[in-house]
Amino acid sequence: MTGSQGPVRTVARRTVVATIGGAGLAALTACGGSEDEGKQVSEQPPGAEAGGEGGAGAAKGGGGAGGGTVLAKVGEIPEGGGKVIGDVVVTQPTAGEFKAFSSKCTHQGCAVKGIADGIINCPCHQSKFSAVDGSVKAGPATRPLPPTSITVDGDSIKLA
User: Fold this and answer.
1) Which CATH number among 2.102.10.10, 3.40.30.10, 3.40.50.10860, 3.40.50.2000 corresponds to the domain 58-159?
2) CA quadruple 157, 42, 56, 92: dihedral positive or negative?
3) Is the model's pTM score more than 0.70?
């Protein structure tokens, strides 16, 4: 068959559907849609076991559930300060009390950095958060840092 602009090809409907379906699958794979999306994840040291997170985000010294990813040693977290470890910021508001939150500022997702005198600071736009409960102490952020559950197992702080 020919048209005014040259020969016309006919394509089987099955070929079109298979091509579109394959392209859609490739796009879905490239976008990384998975059930783990949105979860906080920290870099895992070699030999550490995988662990989950969520919940209140507090742990007192002593035994814990164990089995989670080791984030830090108790002695690495200064009293009144904290440490950013991957996607988690661990604080020690008072002696022996440890808290953990997402390290991503709720304003525009920058990684928080300096933690001192009970305040977690975001270097991008100077938002400030409480090291005790993650609440906003100064904006432009309007939402608190989401808590991450941790346990203290001996001298190790782990994801719960």
Assistant:
1) 2.102.10.10
2) positive
3) no
